[in-house]
Amino acid sequence: MNKIDRMIHQFDAYVDKKVGPWWKNWRRYFSIFSSIFLLLLLIVVLVRMFYVRPYHLSKVMNNDLGLIERIFEDIDKECNILSIRKYGATIDFLTVARFAGSSVGCLNLAYPKHWNGPYLNRTPSIQGRPYQIVQTQEGHFVVPGDGVKLPNGKIIGKDIIFNADTVISEMIKPDGELCHNKQPLALKLKFKVGDWDNPVAKEDKDDEDVSAILKEFDAAFPYSWNEIEWFKRQDQRSCV
Length: 240
Hints:
By secondary structure, the chain is α+β, with helices and mostly antiparallel strands.
């Protein structure tokens, strides 16, 4: 037993002799090493936030635009969008279940009774601001709301102002102001606003077609009648 105790004591003494100085130095510089490690970790987190956050923001905006486009195509298919308000066309009405009249939000509908809302449980927005529709010579575009700061640092309504002459199709190209990491930050509505298949107009067109057919028949009738009379005279001569 004493022999074992002596062996353990000798082992402890050996370890203290070899490790002791290193451990004392480690304890002396531990606070410095830990501070450097935490500083490096903080730098990595900040760099990651600086690069990843804009990408995440552009991805969210691109997904929102795709969702809004699909909903508007469905609305136009079922309700037929006659017109969209030119100014202040904020998209904050997709949570509406019912409404009176033919207008809801910035939309004027031909068949408001076909409204299948609510289309969403919450209003799509970015940085607390709903998206909006702007009308240019190129058509209607869904864009971020005024005050939204884009991933490239531009602010809608301050650095980027939309009007009828704005060429948004150029701005959503890879090097444009409304694009980040090949993610467009605006989207053009593909359907044509106001292409209402008016049943009254259709009936008028049908009436015009019938009228044209009758005119053709009236024009051709004398010739047909003359041919019939000629065949009758030929038959009478044959009988004689």
